[in-house]
């Protein structure tokens, strides 16, 4: 059974996209995913692959950690 550590990846994709005056579809086209993927990622309901995260940060020309933030959860064994 897969253990849930409660970790999370938050992001500021929405903020970067709005500042760039782009639609979700435009960003999706630039990074090679569907509009739905951008939508659920912005809502925090989807953690992108590392490859997609790098594509997004490269597109906006900012460090990966400026867009995606790792939030460590607590291990239930501790």
UniProtKB/TrEMBL annotation:
Sorted UniProt keywords: DNA-binding
Domain HTH cro/C1-type: residue ranges: 13-67
Secretion signal span: none
CDD domains per the UniProt record, alphabetical: HTH_XRE (cd00093)
Annotated GO MF terms: DNA binding
SUPFAM superfamilies according to UniProt: lambda repressor-like DNA-binding domains
InterPro entries per record: Cro/C1-type_HTH, Lambda_DNA-bd_dom_sf
Pfam families, A to Z: HTH_3
Protein name per the record: HTH cro/C1-type domain-containing protein
């Amino acid at each position: 059974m897969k253990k849930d550590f409660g970790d999370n990846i938050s992001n500021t994709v929405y903020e970067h996209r709005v500042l760039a005056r782009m639609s979700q579809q435009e960003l999706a086209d630039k990074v090679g995913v569907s509009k739905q993927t951008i939508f659920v990622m912005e809502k925090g309901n989807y953690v992108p692959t590392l490859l997609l995260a790098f594509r997004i940060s490269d597109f906006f020309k900012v460090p990966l950690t400026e867009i995606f933030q790792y939030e460590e959860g607590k291990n239930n064994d501790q």
